[in-house]
Amino acid sequence: MKKARIAVVGAGGIGAAAxxxxxxxxxxxxxxxxxxxxxxARRAEAGERFGTDKLYSDxxxxxxxxxxxxxxxxxxxxxxxxxxxxxxxAGAWVFCEKPMxxxxxxxxxxxxxxxxxxxxxxxxxxxxxxGGARQVRDKLRSGEWGTVLTGYANTSWYRxxxxxxxxxxxxxxxxxxxxxxxxxxxxxxxLLWLMGDWSSVAGFADxxxxxxxxxxxxxxxxxxxxxxxxxxLSQVLSHQQETRIQVTAQKAxxxxxxxxxxxxxxxxxxxxxxxxxxxVVSDWAEPEGEKQAHREQLANILGxxxxxxxxxxxxxxxxxxxxxxxxxxxxxATGTLVKRGEIVAGDPFYEAIDAGGPARAExxx
Length: 365
Ligand SMILES: NC(=O)c1ccc[n+]([C@@H]2O[C@H](COP(=O)([O-])OP(=O)(O)OC[C@H]3O[C@@H](n4cnc5c(N)ncnc54)[C@H](O)[C@@H]3O)[C@@H](O)[C@H]2O)c1
Description:
By secondary structure, the protein is α/β, with parallel strands linked by helices. It contains 12 helices and 15 strands. It binds nicotinamide-adenine-dinucleotide (NAD).
């Protein structure tokens, strides 16, 4: 099998916990050709753990010496745009951690380089590749469960004070926004992917308790182009940690109860039987082996790469989620319902995902 040459930039939390293990687990399809990190100790530790001495502090040097096919960006959010552009211009695909970047203006700059170079910038969205997610989506999209009506996504996680000791977290300049974009990104992206095109959103976002600039909680109501509606709760304050998603269509209600990585058996599908009773359906999906979500998304990318095809979740597709998050923050800052398509160049929210956040943080001082 043709092996892709893959390098990882950022051997911190998610780089070492998910991306580097995913590459080594897919050793028949991928070769780890470099680890880049500014932090020497992290580089050395990752090199030892993942069996490579191709360790770099400079992305440009690594690109020049190793000529990777794909570069994983597992660095803080504010670095994604410059690094993604650098990688694509140097001739490789990018597999970029979420959030892809911090504004629609930045998304459009990345999209322009993707188009200009013919390379790919793929956003990590591992919930779409977790056990069961694609099967639920296929059923919803096929119409077998009827029209999609309602839904919710509840990301109730807990992050204590030590979480914000990492210098880039909690600040507008480096994280861009908070719980909605950093922690709830996965559940929101999955709900939007399951329910279809969103058309408008109204929300609240604020920093209720934690000593950070970005929001630690938000709520929102969403309307979909197909008529459906949904609610969102995103927070890092909950002592009962859970991620819950529910979608109700005409003929089925689909529930996911998970935390960080959905598994097949965490989905439940209920339908009304002939007697009008709600029943759990056991044969709604094809059985699947255990999935490690980052690995599954990488395997999907590698399949497209070997076939010479464009991969999934390029900038244009990921833009819809960033636009949605931006619209939620705009609604929170302006107290208005925000419609899809209304945030364009000239709007302060086009330039910054949470353009209202700094003023909100200042007002709280
Ligand atoms: N998909 C997920 O489930 C998930 C989970 C956690 C974090 N993330 C995302 O992954 C990204 C990284 O988060 P983290 O928690 O791993 O951060 P982290 O701070 O633990 O690690 C980031 C690493 O990048 C290195 N780095 C920073 N700037 C660099 C640069 N210019 N060149 C090379 N190395 C550089 C740092 O030295 C550090 O080792 C963020 O965007 C975050 O939102 C995603």
